[in-house]
Amino acid sequence: MATIALLLPFWASAQFTLSGTVIDSQTGNTLPGATVSISKAQTIIADATGHYQLGGLKKGSYILHVSFIGYTSVNQEINLSANLTSDIKLTSGAIITEDVNVSATRASSKSPTAFTNLKRKDIQKNNLGQDLPMLLGGTPSAVTTSDAGAGVGYTGIRIRGSDGTRINVTVNGIPLNDSESQGSYFVDLPDFASSVDNIQVQRGVGTSTNGAGAFGASINIQTTTRRDSAYLELNNSAGSYGTVKNTVQLGTGLLGGHFSFDGRLSRINSDGYIDRAFSKLKSYFLSGAYYGKNSIVRVNVFSGQEQTYQAWDGVPADSIAKGNRTYNELGYINSSGTYYKNQTDNYTQNHYQLLYDQQLGSKLSFSGALHYTKGYGYYEEYKNNAAVADYGLTPVVTGGVSIDETDLVRRLWLNNEFYGLTYNFKYQPINPLNIILGGAYNEYKGAHYNNIEWTQLSTTASPDYEYSRDDAKKKDFNTFARAELQAGKFLLYGDLQYRHINYSFLGFDRNLNNVQQAVQLNFFNPKAGITYELNDHNNVYASFAVGNHEPNRDDYTNSTPDSRPKSENLKDFELGYRTNQGIFTGGINAFYMLYKNQLVLTGSLNDVGAAIRTNIKDSYREGVELDGRLRITQQLSWAANLAFSSNKVKNFKQFLYNYDTEAYVETDYKKTDIAFSPNVVGNSEISFRPIKNGEIALISKYVSKQYLDNTSNTNPAGVPSAGENEYAVNRYLKSYFVNNIRLNYNFSIKSVKNLGVTLLVNNIFSTKYEANGATYPDIEGGQVVNYNYYYPQAPRNFLASLNLKF
Questions:
Q1: DSSP symbols for 66-81
Q2: For the region Disordered, what residue ranges are annotated (predicted)?
Q3: What is the dihedral of CA 265, 124, 135, 271, to 10 degrees?
Q4: pLDDT tens readout for residues 715-748
Q5: What residues have CB less than 8 Å from 724, skipping those under 6 apart?
Q6: Is 565:555 a contact under the CB 8 Å cutoff?
Q7: Of 98, 203, 531, 796, which residue is the least packed, with the fewest Cβ within 10 Å?
Q8: Which of 140, 153, 149 is nearest to 186 (CA)?
Q9: Contact at 8 Å (CB) between 785 and 778?
């Protein structure tokens, strides 16, 4: 990257850049989404901060055209002889602009925060049926995985080594993370990416947001916004492993100057790469909006229904060593190789959102939302030789023989609802000062109950017998104030958040009675930073932020007040540099994330005999992230990012059960690597456009070795001995380098505005790699035995799509 930067002046000698910000002439607010074109040669959309940039321009005169629905268009003559910055002011027309409801939780272009903005076109170019986390895998420090191996069904994402339970996700400013497990399950919203307008991925603590604290990153999603004219889109994809995606989208455009309606209907089916890892997914998205002179009201209703075969436990190490990378033992019944066909996960999730924006004056605006989410479903599984006493049943005596065990089928249900409100006031008394006051109040109710559907032998179970139930309720309130002040070349940033949690659950008391109880937590999360503009194209920034994160449901229900873990605390230091040189944009960001009481599995048992997560006093992540985009020629460009990090836990204690002595053995480690935290993560996309509207892209990803637990366990001999299984001897995931190719061509014929054809070939060299795993070591015969499970990803596979726009 340094060499490229030194060569930039030579490459750019005959090319200039025109940039600026589109602004409301009355309020001074920026206008994200404005259309900017120059002499019909280039047309772009202003980003989430209202900024635009047109590059590769030669010396001469141009007509700059700027338009935004609800505003009077502007035509301005530009004489270009050097790089030029020109801010454009638009005058409000019949209706106000659609303010981004999530702006309160987003970083601005100059914020002292590490972030990546993805526009709709960036998301859609790879949206051929894979889950949303897979589409975010090219962002800095991100590692993705798929349980079924081909990106459809249950998928996951880690950013800076932090898993989905520590990544805050919002949709239009409304929390998406499950209130109890704290993960975000995008499988519940299949093809959601088709209804997304833009995404901002923040790394580190980031800005104040609603829902669970961002303990490694946050993903802020904005769904479909207004389109100027009516449209109909048909998107169909098909590919390897029986993967098929069908999507229909349509919208009215603006009706009568005030109304718009949009809708989407989707279906995705896939057999998966792993055995019996099929997915049957359905979803829809409906949105209606009213645009007044000073207000906007939008209603979103969207839903997802998923049925997936269980592939959660991964593939055993022994199976992979024998060459069977797709073996799925879940649902196994007997030695004849029979599998239970309904070993499935079934869940439906319905979302309702009411979004409201109001301009209260020239200096004050309000954005708020009411929301309600209803989720219900179960996973069904076959259990061999289950002890009837474990299900609260009395053994039946037949012919003098007590039936203590039987095969059975059980369903584990979750029936939950989540509702509340979010709000923010934006006040700009003078142009350089921007103040936001916001917050949210949300409630969650979750009913966990389990039924027996069938037993092989006679028991005392009645039809649909319920053997356990656990009802939980969580109240979550937060309020925050954020301010940005432009003082000359300095941008001063401050952000203060208070969060209160009340969680009621069924758990053990000090007498080991299982009773309903509650905990209350109070968090204060301050953030501060500064950005200095070196010139119009370069700035440096520094920030400090504090984040706090509560334990999850299992941490509470499987412990007593005496063994209950503490909440986690993170102090995040960020230092960065950003540049925008027209043909090259990029930056470098250094971070140091210091954890206190981070929760990890150690293998120890608490006072109720459960192996829950334990607080580790000291751990940290430190590293450097580089990202850049270079336009080498008009046809050739290269975007890349690379992250180097060191992720360590101090004074870690591991407990292994010794089957020889029937006792736990403790091993102390002074400094080891944090699990699932690779030291190097890199992404590259080289794009070549040989013809108009045609593109060939080579997409590459590298992930270095990462450990399955916090012991940095590697076979001392370096390589397995003869006859040993390398997947079982060591507890880590090997490094991998994977390459994909994407081909795309767009054209129009007669009544079809656009006909797009895309071919995505994943893992073109059929690299054998595993992106995720788990380990369960113990001691047997005086030796440590590793029971390792892995999630192999698919070899060479493809997806092809046909997109029709009318």
A1: EE-TTB--EEEEEEES
A2: 551-570
A3: 50
A4: 655 555 555 678 888 899 999 999 999 999 998 8
A5: none
A6: yes
A7: 796
A8: 153
A9: yes
Q: How far is CA 649 from CA 611, 675, 709, 804, in A?
A: 19, 9, 11, 52
Amino acid letter at 710? N
| Dihedral angle over CA of 82, 85, 90, 96, nearest 10 | 140
Please report which confidence band the pLDDT of residue 8 belongs to, taking 50, 70 and 90 as the band edges: very low
**Phi and psi torsions of 727, nearest 5°:** -75, -20
Contact indicator for 174, 210 with CB cutoff of 8 Å: yes
d(CA 327, CA 320): 8
Instruction: Give the pLDDT confidence of 580-597 residue by residue, as tens digits.
Output: 888 999 999 999 999 999
d(Cα 475, Cα 288) in Å, to the nearest integer?
30
* Inter-CA distances, 456 with 187, 210, 335, 385, 388, Å: 33, 48, 17, 10, 12
- Non-local (6+) Cβ contacts of 529 within 8 A are 111, 112, 113, 493, 541, 542, 543, 544, 545, 574
Structure-block tokens of residue 176: 């998406």
Summary mean pLDDT of the chain = 90
- CB-CB contact of 222 with 199 (8 Å): yes
Residue 421, sorted as left (phi over 0), alpha (psi -120 to 50) or beta, turns out to be beta
Encode 279-312 in three state secondary structure: EEEEEEEEEEEEECCCEEEEEEEEEEEEEEECCC
Residues 121, 702: Cα–Cα separation, whole Å: 24
Q: How far is CA 282 from CA 305, 373, 454, in A?
A: 5, 17, 28
- What gap in Å lies between CA 244 and CA 248, rounded to an integer? 14
* Residues contacting 229, CB < 8 A, separation 6+: 253, 254
Residue in 471, 486, 482, 463 with CA at minimum distance from that of residue 517: 471
Q: What is the pLDDT of residue 728?
A: 85
How far apart are the C-alpha atoms of 695 and 176, rounded to whole Å? 35
Show the tokens assigned to 734.
Answer: 């090997």
Q: Report how far apart the first and last C-alpha atoms of the chain are (Å, whole number).
A: 42
For residue 761, the Cα-to-chain-centroid distance in whole angstroms is: 23
B/e letters for 666-700, b = 16+ CB within 10 Å, e = fewer, are eeebeebbbbbbbbebbbbbebebeeeeebebebb
**Cα–Cα distance, 502 to 482 (Å, whole number):** 25
Whole-model pTM: value is 0.87
Residue type for position 720: P
Residues 254/290, Cβ–Cβ less than 8 Å: no
The set of residues, in sequence order, having a beta carbon less than 8 Å from that of 615 and lying 6+ positions away, is 565, 566, 568, 597, 598, 599
User: 538 with 76: CB under 8 angstroms?
Assistant: no
What separation in angstroms does the CA of 650 have from each of 185, 266, 668?
A: 31, 48, 10
Instruction: List residues bridging with 134 in a β-sheet.
Output: none
**Bridging pattern class, strands 84-85 and 16-24:** parallel
- In degrees, rounded to 5, the angle at the alpha carbon of residue 509 between the alpha carbons of residues 503 and 514 is 85
Structure tokens at 237: 């994809």
CA–CA gap between residue 774 and residue 709 (Å, rounded): 8
Sign of CA dihedral 646, 641, 772, 591: positive
Identity of the residue numbered 618: D
Please state, in angstroms and as integers, the Cα–Cα distance from residue 544 to each residue in 107, 487, 621, following that order. Answer: 14, 20, 15
213, 525 Cβ separation under 8 angstroms: yes
Residue at token pair 């250094």:
590
State the maximum Cα–Cα separation within the chain, in Å, rounded to a whole number: 101
**Poorest-pLDDT segment among 93-107, 565-579, 613-627:** 93-107
Contact 136, 122 (CB under 8 A): no
Written as six digits, the tokens of 513 are 């009675």
Rounded Cα distance between 638 and 629, Å, is 6
Q: Are strands 217-223 and 167-171 parallel, antiparallel or unpaired?
A: parallel
Among all chains, which residue has been given the structure tokens 């981004």?
100
